[in-house]
Design goal:
By secondary structure, the protein is an alpha/beta fold. It is about 40% helix and about 15% strand. The chain has an eight-stranded mixed sheet, with helices on both faces. α2 (about 100-105) links the parallel β3 and β4. The radius of gyration is 25 Å and the shape is globular.
């Protein structure tokens, strides 16, 4: 048998090592060249960017148009929604989307949805009305000013919208639920309907309660929702307290608010996704 010399062994080892390195590099190149995940947003969704001088930034805006928008000349009500990354597209969502576009498509909804991207690290600032002693925040007035004086006029000019409060809703969950309710208090002639999911009233409990108490009348239609397993009993307590205050500002006979507590519902997109259809149908 022919003996293998040390030099030959070294050559074989070097060749094998080189082969693995080349294969590894090829796999890395393959990974880097993988196409991005395909968007799950329906064909009814498009985007644009707009300057937000109140926030010293630009905002990406997502637009859902009903299926019959281009084939008709009618005008449509509008829903303004926060956290747009989570409502239409699984590839941009944090832990799952709301399937708003698919849900509205399935029931042939006659509504336009304007989704406003959140500010990432500035999300808490934008979606909280008052500063929290522990967590900060409190820049919601500028955020809402952007929606009311910059975004809404652009939307009303660009799309066929019904512009009055009766046909304009604002909708969100968690901090988005808090800011949506606050928006109705601050701009009652702009937002006539509110989707208030798992509202984080705890963040500004004292201030938002005082503001509600000082509001003489409140005729906005509100859909309150949370789960009974959100990890904090304060969510239910705060929502019940706010609903009670709302009812002191108007006759319950008007049936302008609805409260839903979902058994087993947790503070997540699953709860909000599965509840969106019923909330939309009740509000509109």
């Amino acid at each position: 048998m022919k003996r293998v010399t040390f030099i030959q062994l070294k050559y074989i080892f070097s060749t094998v090592l080189l082969f693995h390195l080349l294969c590894g590099n090829a796999q890395e190149s393959s990974k880097q060249e993988e196409p991005p995940k395909k968007s799950t947003a329906s064909n009814q969704v498009s985007t644009f960017t707009i300057e937000a001088p109140q926030l010293k930034t630009t905002k990406k805006i997502w637009v859902y148009l009903p299926k019959n928008y281009t084939s008709s000349s009618k005008k449509f009500p509008v829903i303004y929604m926060h956290d747009a990354q989570n409502i239409f597209d699984a590839t941009t969502s944090y832990v799952g989307e709301w399937n708003v576009d698919e849900t509205l498509d399935s029931i042939q909804a006659q509504v336009i949805v304007i989704g406003i991207e959140h500010g990432n690290e500035k999300r808490m600032e934008e979606l909280t009305p008052f500063k929290n002693e522990k967590y900060g925040g409190g820049n919601a007035d500028n955020y809402l000013d952007f929606i009311v004086t910059t975004l809404k006029p652009y939307v009303d000019k660009t799309y066929r919208t019904k512009t009055n409060a009766r046909n304009t809703a604002i909708f969100g969950s968690s901090l988005g639920g808090l800011i949506s309710f606050y928006a109705a208090l601050k701009y009652p002639t702009i937002f006539g309907k509110v989707g208030c999911f798992s509202p984080s009233f705890w963040f500004n409990r004292k201030e938002i309660t005082t503001l509600m108490e000082q509001t003489p009348t409140f005729n906005t239609k509100v859909y309150f929702l949370c789960g009974d397993s959100e990890g904090d009993d304060d969510v239910i307590k705060d929502m019940n307290s706010m609903e009670h205050l709302v009812n002191t500002k108007r006759c319950e006979c008007k049936k302008l608010n609805k409260k839903v507590i979902v058994k087993g519902g947790e503070h997540n997109e699953k709860l909000w996704r599965e509840s969106f259809k019923k909330a939309y149908l009740w509000l509109f």
